[in-house]
């Protein structure tokens, strides 16, 4: 087996070989400056080539005596008379001055120094000649090879590779940090295989598995990338058996008991449910005033005739896309019926609430984002959730639904 086949850092064979050649000179070479973006394998490769005892993290040496003692111990442990200083770019001013002094001392006493940092700094490179070793960003293929190595269970290697390919396709643009990608993959893989563990889906049903896990990817991009919550908090809030999670088979919210929405937003979601399931031609029947119904009586009879010809109920046909204007008209009418004495002009910004529902995944936007003239959405809650929300605001939902059975 060749060295490249056993090397644990894919895509860093060239840099590791260059470091080995410089370290083999036993301090006769100039200082080595290793730099590159975060999560490109700098510290790991240096520790692999030199050995972990030869690496000093300057962030862990808050005083000059501690830094001097750590450097002396690393030199004593190194068979190549070479010490590596990691995270120098994040060091304090006195630490950077101490590193510059160490570089001058190394040139006089013939021992090697490897400086690891994200960005080059003149204070380090002007004092003594340095050989620069640049760690470029990983390519997509190299990133995939690294992620594949993180397989948690060798028996699920094929399934893990399938998930890594999906995760990389979704996260390639918004997130290229390897540490973040590894973190997200480890976090969401149990969600991905849960339908398989439960016997609801097969490993070959890749499209359905992707539909199931898409909601979790959206949550991760919203909350984890900025690290506003820890991994433990996220897992607690998205427990595998939590009733707030999406139904594993169809991606529809099944329980409304823990769905905490503002009062008016709840009415907006109920109006969206009605607009998604009721035929448009029956809006006059359910929402028009007595004086208005006579004008639309012919349209109502025509719509009722078409409904009788259909064999499937609206509940079985599933939700349909509706224009936002229609949903708002239903919203204002059911709000007026429920609270005839409330001033509708005092309601908060409706558009902001609609955007919030889309963000939470309770509404799906069906129209093209570029089209501003007509925005269409589709509701993403079950009948049980709709009834639970209606009961919370004391709204008789059954009064406005056509051909529905609980």
The end-to-end distance, rounded to whole angstroms, is 65 Å
Strand content: 5-15%
Helical residue percent band: 40-55%
Give start-end ranges of low-pLDDT stretches.
Answer: 240-251, 343-347
Structural class: alpha/beta
Strand order of the largest sheet: 2-3-4-1-5
Q: What is the residue-mean pLDDT, rounded to a whole number?
A: 77
String of helices and strands: HHEHEHEHEHEHHHHHHHHHHEHHEEH
* Number of strand segments: 8
Largest sheet: 5 strands, parallel
Query: Radius of gyration, rounded?
Result: 31 Å
Number of helices: 19
Shape, per Cα inertia axes: elongated
Description:
By secondary structure, the chain is α/β, with parallel strands linked by helices. It is 50% helix and 9% strand. It contains 19 helices and 8 strands. The strands form 2 sheets. A 5-stranded parallel sheet has the order 2-3-4-1-5, sandwiched between helices. Strands 6-8-7 form a 3-stranded antiparallel sheet. The radius of gyration is 31 Å and the shape is elongated. About 4% of the residues have low confidence.
Quickly describe the structure.
By secondary structure, the chain is α/β, with parallel strands linked by helices.
Topology:
Layout lengths: L2 H4 L6 H11 L7 E6 L5 H9 L4 E3 L6 H14 L4 E5 L6 H17 L2 E6 L4 H4 L4 E6 L4 H9 L8 H15 L6 H20 L8 H18 L7 H7 L25 H15 L5 H5 L2 H4 L3 H13 L4 H4 L4 E2 H15 L11 H10 L3 E3 L10 E4 L3 H10 L14
Parallel strand pairs: 1-4, 1-5, 2-3, 3-4
Antiparallel strand pairs: 6-8, 7-8
Helix pairs in contact: 2-3, 7-8, 8-9, 9-10, 12-17, 12-18
């Amino acid at each position: 087996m060749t060295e490249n086949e056993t090397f644990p850092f894919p895509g860093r064979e060239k840099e590791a070989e260059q470091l080995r050649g410089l370290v083999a000179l036993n301090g006769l070479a100039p200082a080595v400056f290793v730099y590159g973006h975060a999560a490109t394998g700098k510290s790991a490769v240096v520790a692999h080539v030199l050995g972990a005892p030869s690496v000093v993290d300057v962030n862990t040496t808050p005083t000059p005596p501690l830094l001097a003692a750590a450097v002396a111990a690393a030199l004593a442990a190194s068979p190549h008379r070479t010490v590596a200083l990691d995270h120098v770019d994040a060091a304090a001013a006195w630490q950077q001055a101490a590193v510059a002094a160490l570089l001058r001392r190394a040139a006089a006493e013939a021992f090697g120094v490897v400086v690891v940092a994200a960005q080059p700094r003149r204070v380090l490179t002007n004092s003594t000649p340095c050989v620069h070793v640049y760690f470029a960003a990983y390519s997509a293929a190299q990133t995939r090879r690294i992620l594949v190595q993180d397989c948690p269970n060798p028996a699920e290697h094929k399934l893990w590779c399938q998930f890594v390919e999906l995760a990389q396709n979704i996260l390639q643009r918004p997130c290229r940090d390897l540490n973040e990608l590894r973190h997200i993959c480890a976090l969401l893989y149990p969600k991905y295989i849960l339908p398989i563990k439960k016997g609801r889906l097969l490993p070959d049903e890749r499209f359905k598995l992707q539909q199931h896990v898409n909601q979790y990817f959206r949550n991760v991009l919203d909350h984890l990338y900025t690290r506003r919550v820890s991994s433990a908090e996220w897992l607690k809030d998205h427990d595998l058996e939590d009733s707030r999670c999406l139904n594993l088979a169809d991606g529809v919210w099944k329980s409304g008991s823990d769905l905490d929405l503002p009062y008016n937003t709840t009415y907006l979601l109920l109006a969206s449910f009605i607009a998604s399931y009721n035929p448009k031609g029956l809006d006059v029947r359910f929402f028009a005033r007595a004086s208005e119904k006579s004008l639309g009586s012919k349209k109502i009879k025509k719509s009722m005739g078409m409904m009788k010809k259909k064999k499937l109920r609206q509940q079985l046909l599933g939700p349909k896309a509706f224009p936002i204007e229609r949903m708002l008209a239903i919203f204002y009418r059911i709000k007026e019926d429920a609270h005839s004495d409330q001033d509708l002009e005092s309601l908060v910004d409706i558009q902001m609430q609609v955007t919030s529902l889309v963000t939470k995944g309770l509404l799906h936007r069906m129209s093209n984002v570029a089209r501003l003239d007509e925005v269409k959405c589709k509701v993403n809650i079950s009948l049980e959730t709709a009834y639970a929300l209606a009961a919370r605001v004391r709204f008789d939902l059954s009064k406005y639904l056509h051909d529905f059975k609980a």
